[in-house]
Design brief:
With 343 residues, the protein is mainly β. The strands form 7 sheets. A 4-stranded antiparallel β-sheet has the order 3-2-1-28, with no helix packed on it. Strand 22 and strand 23 form a beta hairpin. The chain is globular.
Length: 343
Amino acid sequence: MSKSTIPLTVGQYTEGVQPGFSQIMMNLEADKPNTVMRVSNVDNPSYITQSPLGFYAISEKSHKDNAALYFFDNTMTEQAITLLKGDYPCHVSLSECHQFLGVSHYGSGSFDIFSLTSTGHIGHQLASIYNTGKGQHPTRQQGPRGHQLMFIPRSNTLVTVDLGIDELNFYHYASNNIIHQQRLSLPSGSGPRHLVFTQDGLFGFVLCELDETLCVIERKGRGEWRVIHSQQGFPEHECKEAAGAIKLSPDERYVYITGRGQSVISWFDITSRSAPRYQGYVASNGVFPRDIGITQNGLYLIAANQHSNNLAFFSLDKKTGQPTLMPETLALANPVCVLIGHS
């Protein structure tokens, strides 16, 4: 595979569109075509992740409409479905060892943890987590809003991100139970959405949706986490209460975030972990960038522009982090999740 060929799996909202998600072999050379294949029959597969054994997708629906977790092997010929008890799942993640999986439910404000079998299939449900309370935002924080569960690298700790109550909660997990370790409050009304961790598991970068801030958390000597820094994610733009995605460059020198309301991507130099330095922004070449993905070689960034129904492609300067828009674009209905790499 050449550097100019990018394999993508894209989650999409499917109202008015054929159910399923898209797998794409995107060629960034003008004389080569792009291969787009619609696969599976999942309704609203708004988040997808992958292990060496296959793909996991959530169907973002209410419990009464059969919200579900799907597993597909890498050939896409085998499918297994697990119905979920929560409402409107919006995120799915895997542990480093690929033995555990976490699902976040925005509607019910809950989180589920499952074990995985040696073949990658979904095993038993290890635990469900339910938060209580509300935040200060009059319409967006009327109760818990589960947005992400992440397994922290080089540890047996997971963290839940709750937009509705401005909290991160940390748990120790094992094969038969989870134990609550710490509750970490973020600024009132901030609305934490997603976070990413450095591979040493010592620093996390939290993107807050409502006040559009970028917060840094650090694990201290006894294992407790603290918020050590906060700054505006889009300092050259008015806040639209709609920060979207956050991703680290593979070399962990830069963090990239999307402003859905402003349709921009901004980036920060994080070589000084405790004090990210704002570098600038670029337009997302579309409307409402819900997600972004970065290739493993760090050369390209792909933006999923949900409301303009397109993927936009950027080359990345590995020295400066600067994204540069490429001429290629791909029309695709309601793209909301970009996963780079598929069989």
